[in-house]
């Protein structure tokens, strides 16, 4: 009688091969772990635009993963601001190539059931591991606050006319997009993608419910027409829609042995929607926990404290009257660069995050202070 071969037990099985899952698989392999990676469409090409502040990127990421660097991006609130940090737009295809280079053994299939040590796939097979990590993102729940955006890709000359010569615009809250002060606000985001391609995108930072894509498209074209810009009909289009907070059952505070990573674990910044840089930077922390059989590196008490403060910031954004949003961000961009960085980028600096929030509160008008106090005292119920 022939004994069937034993099914392998991997050191780690990672479910979901977006940027977070790929980054974790890449770093786990670099640390010498055996890795199984699981995704329904593991070969699908990433098409989204990813960006980060330069000081957020890990040292192991090759320079070629950055498509463009802007040393002094600007912002418009009630006036013009210069941001004293370098902003990087990532080369999505190169980033995917780097992270895909070594993702372990890849299984093409949909996970239908996860436990801390096994994954059941839709074909009936099972992948077993010492640790299973759920990196499947936030999903598309209408109950979660979402960011939506509609963008067009234009040539640099067209972009220069739209941005009045600024090299890149992180946020432009001016209301030349056909809206009134009472309308849900949206801003223009403009960044170079390559030397000859530039993204102009109308963005609703957070909404519950989110602004529809059709409304954002109308606003973008209205804004550009006001600036004398006509978008060629053949221009590439980018559509963005994702939750900026983790689903309740998948968040960092969930009482479960299931390990999560990326936006699924709450690494999404609720005030900006950014998560790729945090996932790249934090992958090694989780790998060390997996390798050592420990826990707590990814969500130290400092990181949990910062995440709670940022969640409060999200509630403030959702509670603010639309007419006060540009003033709110005016006070943010008036912060010293180190406090801007503390709030936007530093996951383990509750003191800096609190200092940024306190300074904004003191600088704000009575109406904004009232919204902040109501958000602080109210326990959010969905």
Automatic annotation (TrEMBL):
InterPro entries: FAD/NAD-bd_sf. It comes from the Bacteria. PANTHER family: OS02G0190600 PROTEIN, PTHR39757. This is Lycopene beta-cyclase.
């Amino acid at each position: 009688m022939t004994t069937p071969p034993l099914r392998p037990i991997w050191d780690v099985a990672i479910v979901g091969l977006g940027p977070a899952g790929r980054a974790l698989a890449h770093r786990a392999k670099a640390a010498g772990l055996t890795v199984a990676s699981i995704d329904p469409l593991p070969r699908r090409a990433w098409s989204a635009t990813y960006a980060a502040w330069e000081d957020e990127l890990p040292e192991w990421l090759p320079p070629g993963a950055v498509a463009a660097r802007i040393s002094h991006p600007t912002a418009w609130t009630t006036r013009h601001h210069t941001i004293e940090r370098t902003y990087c737009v990532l080369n999505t295809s190169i980033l995917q190539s780097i992270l895909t280079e070594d993702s372990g053994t890849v299984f093409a299939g949909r996970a239908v059931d996860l436990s801390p040590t096994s994954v059941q796939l839709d074909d009936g097979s099972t992948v077993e591991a010492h640790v299973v990590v759920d990196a499947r993102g936030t999903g598309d729940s209408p109950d979660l606050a979402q960011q939506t955006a509609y963008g067009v890709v234009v040539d640099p000359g067209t972009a220069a006319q739209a941005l009045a010569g600024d090299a890149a615009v992180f946020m432009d809250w001016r209301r030349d997009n056909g809206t009134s002060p009472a309308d849900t606000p949206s801003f223009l985001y403009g960044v170079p993608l390559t030397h000859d391609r530039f993204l102009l995108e109308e963005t609703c930072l957070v909404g519950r419910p989110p602004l529809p894509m059709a409304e954002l498209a109308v606003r973008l074209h209205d804004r550009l027409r006001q600036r004398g810009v006509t978008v060629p009909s053949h221009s590439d289009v980018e559509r963005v829609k994702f939750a900026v907070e983790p689903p309740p059952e998948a968040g960092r505070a969930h009482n479960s042995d299931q390990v999560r990573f990326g936006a699924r674990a709450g690494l999404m910044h609720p005030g900006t929607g950014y998560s790729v840089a945090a996932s790249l930077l934090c992958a090694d922390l989780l790998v060390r926990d997996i390798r050592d059989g420990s826990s707590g590196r990814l969500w130290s008490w400092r990181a949990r404290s910062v995440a709670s403060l940022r969640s409060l910031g999200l509630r403030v954004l959702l509670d603010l009257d639309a007419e006060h949003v540009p003033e709110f961000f005016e006070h943010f961009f008036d912060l010293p660069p180190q406090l801007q960085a503390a709030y936007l980028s530093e996951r383990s600096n509750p003191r800096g995050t609190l200092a940024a929030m306190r300074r904004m509160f003191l600088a704000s008008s009575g109406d904004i202070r009232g919204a902040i106090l109501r958000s602080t005292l109210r326990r959010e119920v969905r």
